[in-house]
Write a sequence for this structure.
């Protein structure tokens, strides 16, 4: 498997190191601004301390069509707290000053279009963002954004689903420069007790074709699930399970401790 040109070195280095260690990377998700800007910084760093290899930072949006109730509520809390796209970028910069862990922003296109596409990617580069994930951006329609990302050395990530056609797979492989993100289930994000029985076989087939690393997410919440999927991918994303721990009542210190404990258990399942 080769890394496509233009991928940021921090992302490439993580996947290279994980391949050497014969394990999948752990990618953890935290919503920026949930429950506050300061708290989300501490929670993201708790993920790093727990063993996260890549930080996925959610950008709150009023209509997150790919997300289930857990992350929708996190987005609502962040927006109620006044979180903006500019603050998300500044949060990334604060995290970059504290660690070298790659940062991927995950959000929807409307805020970026309102902010200004070129300005957004320039700010991503300035604040140390390594990659961006837009769930509502088809790779076939991404040429302009891909060009801006490449010019600013920001990786692009595209989503694939169990229902993706061969044509969609080919388009995603061609456009992605950081990694491709396979959605484990048809539907929205959210922790699930059971994942599809045929998922591992599908992942093996997609991974064999992909020129960039393959990660899997949506519905993955336990160390057992992480361990089961790890041999079939280059990275595993855990989001809603972490956000659920953040949503429980408590001080920032208590929430941070819960998140670190969960992430530590997930990273231990990967042998980190």
């Amino acid at each position: 498997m080769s890394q496509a040109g233009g991928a940021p070195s921090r992302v490439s280095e993580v996947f290279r190191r994980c391949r050497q260690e014969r394990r999948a990377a752990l990618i953890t998700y935290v919503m920026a601004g949930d429950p506050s800007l300061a708290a989300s910084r501490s929670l993201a760093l708790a993920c790093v301390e727990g063993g996260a290899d890549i930080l996925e930072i959610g950008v709150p949006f009023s209509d997150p069509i790919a997300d289930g109730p857990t992350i929708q509520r996190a987005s609502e809390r962040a927006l109620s707290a006044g979180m903006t796209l500019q603050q998300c970028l500044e949060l990334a910069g604060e995290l970059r000053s504290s660690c070298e862990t790659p940062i991927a922003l995950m959000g929807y296109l409307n805020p970026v279009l309102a902010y200004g596409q070129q300005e957004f990617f320039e700010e991503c580069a300035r604040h140390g963002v390594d990659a961006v994930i837009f769930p509502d951006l088809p790779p076939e329609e991404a040429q302009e954004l891909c060009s801006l990302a490449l010019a600013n050395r920001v990786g692009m990530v595209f989503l694939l689903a169990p229902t993706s056609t061969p044509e969609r797979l080919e388009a995603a492989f061609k456009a992605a420069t950081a990694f491709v993100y396979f959605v484990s289930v048809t539907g929205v994000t959210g922790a699930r007790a059971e994942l599809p029985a045929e998922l591992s076989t599908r992942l093996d087939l997609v991974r064999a074709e992909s020129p960039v690393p393959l990660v899997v997410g949506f519905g993955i919440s336990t160390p057992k699930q992480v361990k089961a999927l790890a041999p079939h991918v280059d990275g595993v994303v855990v989001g809603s399970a972490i956000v659920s721990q953040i949503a429980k009542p408590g001080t920032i210190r208590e929430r941070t401790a819960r998140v670190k404990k969960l992430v530590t258990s997930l990273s231990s399942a990967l042998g980190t």
